[in-house]
């Protein structure tokens, strides 16, 4: 509403179209999406792309859900096309982890194409993938162009973000904030017994980011995602909306929703949208813990587990805000708007 009033007043004063455009951009949140699409990445991207107050500067891709980073890029293009936003550049990032773990067969979750085996219905224009600049260099370049203005939303393994720190140490202070979907706080794993998928894919990268980045960081851990699933009735109504975006999300999530129901899951679990929700609507966060956290990289059973110093035993300065709960009504409202 404030934006509409401002634009009306500017028009009354005879401001030029260029001036109005500058004003709109000045109020937008600047965002880079570092992703590995992924069904939940697709939903998260739709949420951000639906918000006029958010300006997505770039989509940088990292190997994660897909076995090859180029497939992640193609899937990102599929999402952008479904959202009508192919104007946003997509960059190819890291194709291997820093050290990492063996690739796990995750096809039961995302399908062989990481899009619920529905990707062939949405062929992308591969020419739109920007291969002239590596995604890590994009992060460095854009953080210099917009110092302390960009929110980096990291929804996949943190390989690109860690490599950017290795190539340009000063980048650790140039982002406005980093929002991370990853890690765990009670030792519960969704890939093995004690690790969350994104951190498990590249534990060393996760450790570098948590230890070395100096900008504010917020982490949405796996256990919190479990506690904020979508009731099946809501999910059915949401994906049945008569829009192009809803039809796309329904198609790519169909097999996963069937699998989750067969497993007896009481809700539809989707992690990445929770991370984008706190960027769009910071007031959605109900409980948060500001603590020191790092990542175990040596343990025989606990490799890639996020270790949180809840009681301050190590006397380390807190480095992350761990999101513990969100307002579900406001979250669902954002999901509806995304369609």
From TrEMBL:
InterPro entries with a match to the protein in the record: I/U_nuclsd_hydro_CS (IPR015910), Inosine/uridine_hydrolase_dom (IPR001910), IUN_hydrolase (IPR052775), Ribo_hydro-like (IPR036452)
Descriptive protein name: Hypp6085 protein
Keyword Signal set for record: yes
Keywords: Glycosidase, Hydrolase, Signal
Gene this chain is encoded by: Hypp6085
Coiled-coil segments: none
Any one GO molecular function term: hydrolase activity, hydrolyzing N-glycosyl compounds
Organism: Branchiostoma lanceolatum
UniProt domain Inosine/uridine-preferring nucleoside hydrolase: residue ranges: 31-332
Cleavable signal peptide: 1-18
Family: Belongs to the IUNH family.
């Amino acid at each position: 509403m404030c934006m509409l009033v401002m634009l009306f007043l500017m028009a009354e004063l005879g401001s030029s179209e260029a001036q109005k455009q500058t004003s709109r951009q000045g109020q937008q949140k600047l965002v880079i999406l570092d992703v590995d699409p992924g069904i939940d990445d697709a939903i998260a991207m739709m949420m951000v792309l639906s918000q006029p107050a958010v300006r997505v500067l770039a989509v940088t891709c990292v190997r994660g859900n897909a076995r090859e980073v180029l497939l992640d890029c193609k899937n990102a293009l599929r999402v952008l096309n479904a959202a009508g936003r192919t104007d946003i550049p997509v960059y190819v990032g890291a194709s291997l982890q820093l050290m990492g773990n063996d690739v796990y067969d995750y096809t039961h979750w995302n399908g062989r194409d990481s899009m619920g085996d529905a990707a062939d219905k949405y062929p992308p224009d591969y020419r739109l993938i920007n291969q002239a600049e590596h995604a890590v260099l994009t992060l460095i370049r854009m953080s210099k162009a917009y110092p302390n203005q960009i929110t980096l939303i990291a929804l996949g393994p943190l390989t690109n973000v860690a490599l950017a720190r290795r190539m340009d140490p000063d980048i650790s202070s140039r982002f406005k904030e980093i929002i991370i979907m990853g890690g765990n706080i009670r030792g519960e794993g969704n890939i093995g017994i004690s690790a969350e998928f994104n951190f498990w894919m590249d534990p060393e990268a996760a450790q570098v980011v948590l230890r070395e980045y100096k900008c504010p960081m917020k982490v949405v851990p796996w256990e919190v995602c479990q506690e904020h699933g979508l009731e099946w009735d809501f999910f059915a109504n949401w994906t049945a909306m008569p829009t192009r975006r809803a039809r796309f999300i329904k198609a790519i999530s169909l097999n996963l929703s069937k699998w989750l129901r067969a497993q007896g899951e009481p809700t539809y679990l989707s992690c990445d949208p929770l991370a984008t929700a706190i960027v769009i609507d910071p007031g959605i966060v109900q409980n948060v813990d500001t603590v020191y956290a790092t990542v175990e990289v040596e343990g025989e059973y606990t490799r890639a587990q996020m270790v949180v110093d809840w009681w301050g035993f190590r006397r380390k300065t807190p480095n992350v805000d761990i999101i513990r709960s969100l307002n579900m009504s406001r979250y669902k409202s954002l999901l509806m708007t995304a369609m």
